[in-house]
Amino acid sequence: MSSKAPKTIAIIGSAIAGPTLALQILSNPVLRSAFRPVLFDQAGAPGLEGHNEKNRSGASVGIFANGLYPLHRLGLEDAIRKRGYECGKLTTWSCDYAGGHERLNTQANAMWSHDLQTGVVYFERRALQSLLVEKVKELGGDVFWAKKSTSFQALTNGQTRVNFADGSDMAVDLLVGADGGFSSVRKFILDQRNSTTASDRWLPDFMGLTGFYGVSANIKAKGAPAQFSDSQLIWLDQGYLASGPCSDGKIRWDLVLTEKKSPSSNSPLESIPESTTDAERWQSAIIPSQYPYNSTVDILRKHNNVYHPYSGTLGELFGTADRIIRTPLRQRVWKQDEIQCGSTVLIGDASRLMMPTSGQGTGFAIEDATVLARELLKHASSPDTDKIRVALEAYARAREPRSKKMASMASFAASWSTNTGLFWKGFRYYSSKLQPDTLEVK
């Protein structure tokens, strides 16, 4: 095996799944000798002049035990403890729009892992990405920023040609799409399988919900009962808000509300009107999207006076956000033959997009990279085209059932937590109210 040149793996996307796969390969001597992973991302490198950090996808991520364990095995445990923030207590509240509130219950270490001796760990998404990419570079991996792939071509020798916006191209032995819920690599796979149905199968399904996401600076109201390390779940009349700690004294928050229909795919991106400079501070943090700007402002303004046990009100939480992202919530689990074709495969959100009620978007991305690396390892001693295909097919068979199960749980959780019917409102309230407090800290 050592006499053969390593096979090139082009990984499109360098958020979470892509760098994790590169680390799995670079950290294993057998895989490293058989494969050369190369990361490509259409965004500019974080920290470079002209790169807008506010516009990086997502706001924050939480990692549970299933995602933490593979990262610990990759030697990242100390870095995760240092640069992430472990969740403490989880308190559930019932709040109205005028500031009225009632604490329903508190659970200490509600998401505790006995095996790893840790709770869920929260990161700003870009902070976790930076941690992973730094490790890839430390191990000698290649990362190319501002390198947008524009098209792909299956070659007769089993390779795939990747064409880039700068006019360059590259023939690769294995193409991995880690490019998110609206993956261009997935389009390539679907077109190969059946071009007449590709467009219908490509788009994830709208789930009747809209999400607002933000990361706010540490702002504690005078006399606030909550600690910075606590997470909060606030039941609202229509939807809920969840918040929790991130590193560097920041609070991540998600506001999820019901919505009848998603914005049209051809709706123009709306920038912030210049006339709003003297309005609420949080208006300048809204990232342009396909939603009408005034609609986003009106919805957030409606929640200004909602109680929050750490910041005082949601308005105070919004007011210190460096970015506010609004997006329609979508979900879909693509089938085995939709996430793999020949020497092309999908990982992360490209292979299955789940709602935030799963809590497992990041964990499953890390799982994907780990399972794919494991399957490649089984055939690394003879990484010809057929063996690569066998490994990718085994990966796809393993991931689809687990993804479907988690997506079903996410759908149920979303329906349970946002249904505006009287029965479900009462069920949420009393199931939380009657749950006894558990205040012992691990």
Automatic annotation (TrEMBL):
TM helices/strands, residue ranges: none
InterPro entries linked to this entry: FAD-bd, FAD-dep_Monooxygenase_BioMet, FAD/NAD-bd_sf
Alphabetical keyword list: FAD, Flavoprotein, Monooxygenase, Oxidoreductase
Keyword Disulfide bond: no
The protein, known as: FAD-binding domain-containing protein
GO MF, one annotated term: monooxygenase activity
Pfam families assigned: FAD_binding_3
Domain of life: Eukaryota
Residue stretches making up the FAD-binding domain: 336-407
Family: Belongs to the paxM FAD-dependent monooxygenase family.
